[in-house]
């Protein structure tokens, strides 16, 4: 893949978006990670925040130190000789999941749509690594993909008011885990006991962009032993 041509877009007087790509693709993540490292090094203490996403990086700089023209010039300089980061830089996580209709009400729905057994949906959801593209929506919430096309399922037409912490779901070709109880419209397949966000840890979020995640099916007893809550999902 040839090097991307960054496009700089204004978000606010002290915030710029660096657009590297137009479409979501796992192959783009090494470039996003490389740009993230290069911009952090170049801006150093003038950087307030840098948020990588699927195709862009949002850069918030200290306007007391830099004007926008200078910030734009620094971005161009930092990305002039960009090379993709090594795939080995991301961490690998194995997340145990209890897949069951009681905690994953869309498991059977997706299986029926495909004309297969729920066990086949579970197997297919577990048989590949997913790239953590971006963090957002809630602390520790990682948007991951890409789910195989056959499993891709639109968001629910009416979001649930309460999705339990640890719920594992699919929306289109993305998959994610709810780190805490919150509203949500993803199709829920199961639940994990893994804590995704903990302020007492050196790195509060378990995931960061560029990590690889694989799901592993476990039974109810194992899930409970790991500290999971087997309470069935509410209807709303």
Describe the structure.
This protein has a 7-stranded mixed barrel. The protein has helices at 29-43, 68-78, 106-114, 118-126, 220-225, and strands spanning 7-12, 15-19, 47-52, 56-61, 92-99, 130-135, 142-145, 160-163, 167-171, 174-177, 182-184, 187-191, 212-218. A hairpin with a 2-residue loop joins strand 9 and strand 10 (174-177). Helix content is 21%, strand content 29%. The chain has 236 residues and is an alpha+beta fold. It starts with 6 loop residues before the first strand and ends in an 11-residue tail after the last helix. It has 2 domains: 7-88, 2-Layer Sandwich (Gyrase A, domain 2), CATH 3.30.1360.40; 90-225, Cyclophilin-like (Cyclophilin), CATH 2.40.100. Helix 1 packs across helix 2 (68-78) and helix 3 packs across helix 4.
Sheet with the most strands?
7 strands, mixed, barrel
Secondary-structure element pattern, one letter each: EEHEEHEHHEEEEEEEEH
Count of DSSP strands: 13
Broad shape: elongated
Number of helices, where a helix is a run of at least 4 consecutive DSSP H or I residues: 5
The CATH class label of the largest domain is Mainly Beta
Q: State the CATH topology of the largest domain.
A: Cyclophilin
**Spatial order of the strands in the main sheet?**
5-12-9-10-7-6-13
Helical residue percent band: 10-25%
What is the domain total for the residues?
A: 2
Radius of gyration equals 20 Å
- What structural class do the secondary elements suggest? alpha+beta
Low-confidence stretches: none
CATH architecture of the largest domain: Beta Barrel
Kindly estimate the percentage of residues that lie in beta strands according to DSSP.
25-35%
Straight-line distance between termini: 45 Å
CATH homolog superfamily of the largest domain: Cyclophilin-like
Q: Mean of residue pLDDT? A: 93
